[in-house]
## 1
Amino acid sequence: MTHTIAYRAAILDSLGDPAELGLENSYRYFEDGMMVVENGRISALGHAPEIMKGLKSGTKIHHYEDALITPGFIDTHIHYPQTGMIASYGDQLLDWLENYTFPAEQKFADPAHAEQVSEIFLNELMRNGTTTALVFGTVHPQSVDAFFSSAEKRNLRMIAGKVLMDRNAPATLTDTPESGYRDSKALIERWHGKGRLHYAVTPRFAPTSSPEQLATAGQLLREYDGLYMHTHLSENRNEIEWVKALFPEQNGYLDVYDHHNLLGQRSVFAHGVHLCDEECHRLAETDSAIAFCPTSNLFLGSGLFNLPQAEQHKIKVGLGTDVGAGTSFSMLQTINEAYKVMQLQGKKLHPFKSFYLATLGGARALQLEQQVGTLEPGSEADFVVLDYNATPLMSYRMQQAKSLEERLFVLMTLGDDRAVKATFAMGETVYNRD
Ligand SMILES: [Zn+2]
């Protein structure tokens, strides 16, 4: 039996990167729109009066007044084990790992703890309208089992992996090239391609993996189709110097990964705050992606991501919250901070570009644009209902707003989890605020 529901509201999705298409051609908007969802997939999208003519009689219609339906947000870099240490005071990257991250991650040896945090983490993503994320586990395989089990129950499209880390970390948090390879392989066999789940080979970053371990990461990518590679790159200046000292034979940070065949169309590098043109060229040439993590880059004092440089080189870019170094699960708040990162560099970030980055741009960075990231008929029905009147201030400010782009900008600047009315995955409600 087919299961059909129609949703009526203002509806917006992205058609492409404004840097390529121009602002006007980069989006699709229906002021009085209707989207039809059939068996978990979008089957029709358009102006409500037209779509309604084609609806089978008796089709249930959900009408959201003064709300905006968009694709679910896509977070291209986040650490679920760091949920409990978000907002930790005082350090930049390397001390922050030592003082906060490693102690927090040690607790994930306990499967019950991993299960509990997975649930809290996914509740937060749903509350914030994020339906797909590329997620770090810890070194413990049980951390990834717990995460995937929780994601599977909710039928979410999620990507995650076990951290590979065989040096420069506490003994309780390290694996070896052999055990890291073996444990990753077992997780891939168990989860990769199961339902809507994908596996990411996940070396933490170059300083915590030996060349032998990075070689096993490259080997895994060759052995299985469709695997992701997820790591950090050029976040902090001291980190970059450390990588140079650890890998003197390589020509810079990115080259360490390149040397081990870790670049490619499913490779996502978090941060990339301090990249030279040669590195940008190489990322583009290999179709690798960058996760731009503004709240994290500001919070850890790492630096300002140069989005125009990435655009010039045509590098795929998505947005990441990077919780727990990031300070919010909200992609709206992440956009708000991305705007300020551009301002500090004398650049503007248009709301249509931000919207692209948080939806279709993220989907492209993850090679998932056929499945999610837009509301194109045929796509999986992962979407969010946003409330223009989430707070008294938003409501008052919206009364002064004259255009879609102005309303969108206010939503992105003042909005957060409170602006998410409902979140849907494969057409099912996974969060309902009211
Ligand atoms: Zn990170």
## 2
Amino acid sequence: MSEKFDVIVIGAGPGGYVAAIRAAQLGLKTACVEKWVSDEGKPVLGGTCLNVGCIPSKALLDSTHKYEEAKHAFDVHGISVGEVNIDVPTMVKRKNNIVKNLTQGVAGLFKGNGVTLLQGTGKLLAGKKVEVTDKDGKVSVHEAANVILASGSVAVNIPPAPVNGDTIVDNIGALDFTETPKRLGVIGAGVIGLELGSVWRRLGSEVVVLEAMNDFLSLCDVDVSKEALKIMKKQGLDVRLGARVTGTEINGKEVTVKYTDSNGEQSLVVDKLVVAVGRRPYTEGLLAGDAGVVIDERGFIKVDDQCRTSVPGVYAIGDIVRGPMLAHKASEEGVMVADIIQGHKAQMSYDLIPSVIYTHPELAWVGKTEQQLKAQGVKYKVGKFPFAASGRAMAANDTEGFVKIIADEATDRILGCHIVGGHAADLIAQAVIAMEFGSSAEDIALTVFAHPTVSEAVHEAALAVDNHAIHIVNRKR
Ligand SMILES: Cc1cc2nc3c(=O)[nH]c(=O)nc-3n(C[C@H](O)[C@H](O)[C@H](O)COP(=O)(O)OP(=O)(O)OC[C@H]3O[C@@H](n4cnc5c(N)ncnc54)[C@H](O)[C@@H]3O)c2cc1C
């Protein structure tokens, strides 16, 4: 049956499902098309983020962090727990239950907000028509005043290491190992590689991370990447930089990985190999030949600052468009587009999208790095405060890392904040809010923070921008 909607969203990841909910909240007749089905043939909502990305990886990171603490960090508190064991299938089952609850939650939100779910593969036809082919091959065509494309991304494969779902896996396989691999190779020292590498290293895998670039986490502020590399090496992650994988050979249950580095040709034998070299926009089958939507040379759908494609009334959001491939970026674009469709003025602060790596300690940052400011010739001041000087961090026995705030030398306006620390992912929100409101470092310095909290490190870093930190001796300038 064909129906007419105000808005049809294609894809129910964090970009698409949020856009659909917002559009329905605004009173627009909304449908969301999703092709993913479970083994039981039920629609799977939530996209990469809820099913094989953000949430399951964090579930495993939390389980393994607890395991590691029980094993190595309890004795200092005087707690002895005897032999600590982990049952990997139970850990993975817990992760799967969280995923199930959340994806069912999205189905509930669709129902509660009146979003029509159209199970099937959506294709944009000319004239803002959407063809939906369901799991049984039945085709229907629906009309919409507006279409939002939100088909997301998939893992990049590289020819030297073809994923086979067994010995060589991508992010999906690495979330579902049934036992801890004795030797684990990871190709790519990016967010996903470091998070998944950390999960299995904590459970006892010998983890080698091969990174083709010579610099570690080159997008991060240089202080963050230096500190992170030091900490991760101490934790036992064997990160090899400038290591370019040239081939793999599978021998029974083992994989031999060949790579070149500054010393020439090298090889490494592992039990499992995770390929985590990045993600690419996924638009296969999304657009009919005459749909009119333009895709750029890197495969992203071309959009303006407000996610408008080249076709009036057709928008694209999330991982299929420019900008960081992050769930919160996708969701905020979804909200913005729904608001624009409803006729509201809406825009997003693309310069203030926070990034996080959920290792322990976490790495989080927003705004400009020192390298960027130097390259742009901007004069700046830096305030830094180590968690080793924070009473709360000491009480929690979690003192690695620091907060670093960078402010404009002339105006004191905050230009960037970079954190390595146990709660960096949550602390960075303070800097994002401050920067959204155009705060100066002094604004934060004059704000009252509860004591004792790790947030006080943000306060102290802001004070340190003008050499007024209280709980460290300030550098003479
Ligand atoms: C291991 C891992 C960890 C991550 N951790 C984080 C994190 O901690 N924080 C963070 O912000 N981001 C994280 N990400 C990235 C995050 O998952 C993505 O940025 C986010 O999911 C993108 O949302 P999206 O809505 O654009 O696309 P997706 O989540 O990819 O959803 C797209 C949906 O569209 C559906 N679809 C595609 N084509 C069609 C079609 N033609 N018809 C119907 N349906 C279609 C797909 O089935 C899918 O459900 C992680 C990713 C991975 C892989």
## 3
Amino acid sequence: MAGKDSELEKGLHAIVGSFYKYAKDKGGAQALDQAAFQKLLNNELSHQLTDVQSTEAGKDLLKKLDTDKNQLISFEEYWELVALICYAIDGGDWGN
Ligand SMILES: [Ca+2]
């Protein structure tokens, strides 16, 4: 296990770290509220997600990912976004 992290390991750490960089403690669990989620989209995903840089589009995406409808993005819900982006990188169309 000695040596440098692989590119994949670095990427996984970046995925997790980016969530916790913006997440706030919401009743005992870390989650992104709408403002934090928009900040993450604008600061970290402006190249992959060019169409959700506006607040309105960000709100729509939050609604789509917020499966338990609590207006917050949990780590599990964020993971769904990561999966969608990976699918898009692989050539899929995740838009609809
Ligand atoms: Ca939620």
